[in-house]
Amino acid sequence: MNDSSRQFDWNHVRAFLATAEEGSLSAAARKLRLTQPTLGRQVSALEDELGLLLFERVGRSLVLTRAGTELLDHVRAMGEAADRVALVASGQSQSIEGLIRITASDVTSAFVLPWALKQLRSEAPRLNIDIVASNDIRDLMRREADIAIRNVRPEQPDLIARLVQEASAHFYASTGYLDRMGRPQTPDDLANHDFIHYGDAEGMRDFLTPLGLPVTVENFRIGSNSGLVGWELARQGFGIVAMDEEVARMTPGMERILPELDPITFPVWLATHRELHTSRRIRLVFDLLADYLSQRG
């Protein structure tokens, strides 16, 4: 490794970094959108170029060797530098064409974004749009997405974030469920109803109890960490669920319960990387989404 003339392929370095971070070739291949054999060859090629063994297989996982661990910090620094170069280059692009990745929750991706994208397609028909439907906070710095729509404010200092909406949610159930189980007339009636959670029954109970709703974990017998699945479960008659009121209006057969209850309010943040905000195409999409989401409020 002291041979200053030794050179290696950046693709091989990127393959090593992804494998070290993901812990397996299959996960790293998915992250880089490569086939697993291709990724494996790139990692092996880097080991040959450096004359080092970088990974050892332990069960189904790959574990860094001592040499791999020592190399990892340097490679991460290279990856961050490469990301910054890509951000600067993308930020300087003034063309209203190319690929834009937008990440949002699955519910927002399915029910909210299509209406905004219709306007975007008419204003910039040469743009290619990739919707990353995810309830996780995606890393804009690593270019998993160019623009993020989230219900929590991103804290990274290199991001531009704008509060574009204070949305409201209420409780809904299907007409079939309410015909079968009865329509609650008071909050106390909810103790005898089924609720649908979004992946955390205890967390939902802890959120609803201070609102004066007499629910326990036993009320949450079914749920999903997918908002779309939770909403479909409610539509199919499995119980009561909280949902954005504008999404609920789009779904026939769903009734709002206890309309006198105060709405659940939540912020909607739009974020992008500071350097990407100088890109004409990303600025166009960012501003259009900001206008559309603000009008929804």
Automatic annotation (TrEMBL):
Domain of life of the organism encoding this protein: Bacteria
Pfam family, one: LysR_substrate
Cited Gene3D superfamilies: 3.40.190.290, Winged helix-like DNA-binding domain superfamily/Winged helix DNA-binding domain
Alphabetized InterPro entries for the sequence: LysR-type_TF_proteobact-type, LysR_HTH_N, LysR_subst-bd, WH-like_DNA-bd_sf, WH_DNA-bd_sf
Annotated HTH lysR-type domain residues: 8-65
Keywords for this protein: DNA-binding, Transcription, Transcription regulation
Similarity comment: family membership: Belongs to the LysR transcriptional regulatory family.
PANTHER family in the cross-refs: HTH-TYPE TRANSCRIPTIONAL REGULATOR (PTHR30537), TRANSCRIPTIONAL REGULATORY PROTEIN (PTHR30537:SF3)
Protein name per its UniProtKB record: LysR family transcriptional regulator
Classification of source organism: Bacteria, Pseudomonadati, Pseudomonadota, Alphaproteobacteria, Rhodobacterales
